[in-house]
UniProtKB/TrEMBL annotation, chain A:
<protein>
    <recommendedName>
        <fullName>Biotin carboxyl carrier protein of acetyl-CoA carboxylase</fullName>
    </recommendedName>
</protein>
<comment type="pathway">
    <text>Lipid metabolism; fatty acid biosynthesis.</text>
</comment>
<feature type="domain" description="Lipoyl-binding">
    <location>
        <begin position="1"/>
        <end position="77"/>
    </location>
</feature>
<dbReference type="InterPro" id="IPR050709">
    <property type="entry name" value="Biotin_Carboxyl_Carrier/Decarb"/>
</dbReference>
<dbReference type="InterPro" id="IPR001882">
    <property type="entry name" value="Biotin_BS"/>
</dbReference>
<keyword id="KW-0276">Fatty acid metabolism</keyword>
<keyword id="KW-0443">Lipid metabolism</keyword>
<keyword id="KW-0092">Biotin</keyword>
<keyword id="KW-0275">Fatty acid biosynthesis</keyword>
From TrEMBL, chain B:
<dbReference type="InterPro" id="IPR011764">
    <property type="entry name" value="Biotin_carboxylation_dom"/>
</dbReference>
<dbReference type="InterPro" id="IPR011054">
    <property type="entry name" value="Rudment_hybrid_motif"/>
</dbReference>
<dbReference type="Pfam" id="PF02786">
    <property type="entry name" value="CPSase_L_D2"/>
</dbReference>
<dbReference type="Pfam" id="PF00289">
    <property type="entry name" value="Biotin_carb_N"/>
</dbReference>
<keyword id="KW-0067">ATP-binding</keyword>
<keyword id="KW-0092">Biotin</keyword>
<feature type="domain" description="Biotin carboxylation">
    <location>
        <begin position="1"/>
        <end position="444"/>
    </location>
</feature>
<dbReference type="InterPro" id="IPR011761">
    <property type="entry name" value="ATP-grasp"/>
</dbReference>
<keyword id="KW-0547">Nucleotide-binding</keyword>
Length: 79, 447
C-alpha cells in the first residue's frame, strides 16, 4: 500500500481555510509536489505535499485530527 | 466567589492558580489529552479533562468548559489570554450558565473586537487615532483625502486584514497611479473594491498602557510597557517603563488610556495599545480586553498583583489602591523563551524538554508552565518560559537579564535563548532606540 505520511506532528487540515474547499477530493488524481493538506504546528501552517503521483484512494485522517510524525495520511491507488 | 475555573493552560494557568490560592479561592484546572501531566493540573485543587489535544476540541470548546465549571461547582471562570479570552460569544455562555467571567462585559469585548467601533470609542474619548479617511471612490477623492491624512499614506483594502491588501504611497503622483490598481486588486482578492487611506507611520514604537477598572467606576493605570521588539507582530522582549519617554508624553499616554476605559465603562484589567512616533505623537491602535503575556513587568515596577486585582474586581470589590498610591519603582524587562529556532527562520520546535534549569536571585522572576521531562507539544504556542528581570534602574534590570540567561539551561529543543543573549547587548536596544520593525531589520534572514 502506498501512502503519504505526515512529516511533522500537529493538527491536520484538508482545507486552506475553514470556508474554502478541500485541497483534493477522494478519487482525485494528484501529482508529485502537489499540496494536499496542511499541518498546524504551534500556530504555523505547513503544507503537506504529495511525494509521488497517484489517485487518492482514501484519507486516513479526519479534518482537524491530531497526527504524529510518520503517520499515514492518505492511501494512494494507481493512476 | 469561591471556586475559579481556569480556562487556559501553561504558564498563565499556573499564574492564575497562584493568585487565586493566595486570595483564598479554590481552583479548577482543565486539560486536553496532551496536557494531562501539566504543571497547572497538579497545582489546582481539582482538574477536569476537556477533550482532544487540538485547541478547537479542548481549550476553545466553550461548551466543554461550561460543563467542567458546572460539574465541579465553580462559580467563576478566568480565561487567561488567547483561547476564549476575547470571544464575546464564550463570555456570554459563561454568564448564561451563572458563572462570573473574570473580564469585562460581553458588550465591551464585542466593541473592542470591532476595529471601527473601537476607533470611534477612542475618538469620543478624545484619544488620537491614526489619521485616516473614509472610503475613497476615485482618484480625485483620494487626492483630496490624502491632503488631510498627510503623506506618506497607506492605501488599504477595507475587506483586507492581517497585513494583506496594503500599499504604501509617498506622493500625489504615486497615489493617482496606485489607486485604480489597488481597487482592482482589492476586488479580485476580497471581492470588494472599497479602499481607504491611512497615514503610514515609520519608526514607531509599540507602547501599551495597563489599566484596571472596577464596578464602582474607579479607573487606574499601572503605567506603560514598550513592546517594540517584535518579529512578525510577535513580541519577544518587553520593557516597563518605556525607556526614554518624556514625562509629559508618559502622562498624556497613560491618561489617554484611562479616558478610553472610562468612556466605554470598562471593568477589569485591560491594555490600551498605541503607536508612538519618533516626533512624540501617539495614536490608539486597539484595546486588549484581558490579561496580557507581558503583565509581570508592570507588576515588577509597581508592586501591584494584576491577576489578584482581576479576581477582586470580578468579585465586586474595588481596585485595592488609588492612582496616587502607585509609582514607578525601577525598571523591568521580560524575555520570552520560545521553542523556536532563531537560526532557522524561527521555525517552531516541538519536542521533549530533557532539561530545564531555571535562574533565580533578586529581581529575577520566572513564569513557566513546564518542568524538565515535559513535552513541548505541537498543538499550542511555542512559549516555554518568561524571564522577568527587574532592578532599581534599567541597567540593573538588563544586567540581571544577562545573568538569568547565563543560568538558564534548556535542553531537548532549540530555543530563543541565544538570540536574547545577543539582543541584550545590541547598542540600539541598550539606548532604547528601537521601533517595531527594528528586529526584522536586524535579522533580515529571519522572516
Amino acid at each position: 500500500m502506498t501512502t503519504i505520511k505526515a512529516q511533522m506532528p500537529g493538527v491536520f487540515y484538508r482545507r486552506p481555510a475553514p470556508e474554502k474547499p478541500v485541497y483534493v477530493d477522494d478519487g482525485e488524481e494528484i501529482s508529485q509536489g502537489q499540496t494536499i493538506a496542511l499541518i498546524e504546528v504551534m500556530k504555523t501552517f505547513n503544507e503537506v505535499k504529495a511525494d509521488e503521483s497517484g489517485t487518492v484512494a482514501e484519507f486516513l485522517v479526519e479534518d482537524g485530527d491530531e497526527v504524529d510524525v510518520g503517520q499515514d495520511i492518505v492511501r494512494l491507488g494507481e493512476v | 466567589m469561591r471556586r475559579v475555573l481556569v480556562a487556559n493552560r501553561g504558564e498563565i494557568a499556573v499564574r492564575i492558580i497562584r493568585a487565586a490560592h493566595a486570595a483564598g479561592l479554590e481552583t479548577v484546572a482543565v486539560y486536553s489529552d496532551a496536557d494531562a501531566q501539566g504543571r497547572w493540573v497538579q497545582l489546582a485543587d481539582t482538574a477536569v479533562h476537556i477533550g482532544k489535544s487540538a485547541a478547537a476540541k479542548s481549550y476553545l470548546n466553550s461548551a466543554a468548559l461550561v460543563e467542567a465549571a458546572v460539574s465541579t461547582g465553580a462559580d467563576a471562570v478566568h480565561p487567561g489570554y488567547g483561547f476564549l479570552s476575547e470571544r464575546p460569544g464564550a463570555a456570554k455562555e459563561f454568564a448564561d450558565a451563572g458563572l462570573t467571567f473574570v473580564g469585562p462585559a460581553v458588550s465591551t469585548i464585542e466593541m473592542m473586537g470591532d476595529k471601527a467601533a473601537a476607533r470611534d470609542a477612542a475618538k469620543r474619548a478624545g484619544v488620537p487615532v491614526v489619521p485616516g479617511s473614509g472610503a475613497v471612490g476615485d482618484v480625485d477623492e483620494a487626492l483630496a483625502a490624502a491632503e488631510d491624512v498627510g503623506y506618506p499614506v497607506l492605501v488599504k483594502a477595507a475587506a483586507g486584514g492581517g497585513g494583506r491588501g496594503i500599499r504604501p504611497v509617498a506622493s500625489r503622483d504615486e497615489l493617482a497611479e496606485v489607486l485604480p490598481a489597488a481597487q482592482a486588486e482589492a476586488r479580485s482578492a476580497f471581492s470588494d473594491d472599497t479602499v481607504y487611506l491611512e497615514r503610514a507611520i515609520d519608526g514607531a514604537r509599540h507602547i501599551e498602557v495597563q489599566i484596571l477598572a472596577d464596578h464602582a467606576g474607579n479607573v487606574v493605570h499601572t503605567f506603560e510597557r514598550d513592546c517594540s521588539v517584535q518579529r512578525r507582530r510577535q513580541k519577544l522582549i518587553e520593557e516597563a517603563p518605556a525607556p526614554g519617554l518624556a514625562a509629559e508624553t508618559r502622562a498624556s499616554i497613560n491618561d489617554a488610556a484611562v479616558r478610553l476605559a472610562r468612556q466605554v465603562g470598562y471593568v477589569g484589567a485591560g491594555t490600551v495599545e498605541f503607536l508612538l512616533t519618533p516626533s512624540g505623537e501617539f495614536f490608539f491602535i486597539e484595546m486588549n480586553t484581558r490579561i496580557q503575556v507581558e503583565h509581570p513587568i508592570s507588576e515588577a515596577i509597581t508592586g501591584v498583583d494584576l491577576v489578584s486585582e482581576q479576581l477582586r474586581i470580578a468579585a465586586g470589590e474595588p481596585v485595592s489602591f488609588s492612582q496616587d498610591e502607585v509609582q514607578i519603582r525601577g525598571a523591568a524587562v521580560e524575555l520570552r523563551i520560545n521553542a523556536e529556532d532563531p537560526d532557522n527562520r524561527f521555525q517552531p520546535t516541538p519536542g521533549d524538554l530533557s532539561r530545564l534549569d531555571l535562574p533565580g536571585g533578586p529581581g529575577v522572576r520566572v513564569d513557566t508552565g513546564f518542568v524538565a521531562g515535559d513535552r513541548i507539544s505541537p498543538f499550542y504556542d511555542s512559549m516555554i518560559a518568561k524571564l522577568i528581570c527587574s532592578g532599581p534602574d534599567r541597567d540593573t534590570a538588563f544586567a540581571r537579564g544577562r545573568q538569568a540567561l547565563a543560568e538558564l539551561r534548556v535542553e531537548g529543543v532549540p530555543t530563543t535563548v541565544s538570540m536574547h543573549r545577543r539582543l541584550l547587548d545590541e547598542p540600539d536596544l541598550r539606548a532604547g532606540a528601537v521601533h517595531t520593525k527594528w528586529l526584522e531589520e536586524l535579522l533580515p534572514d529571519s522572516t
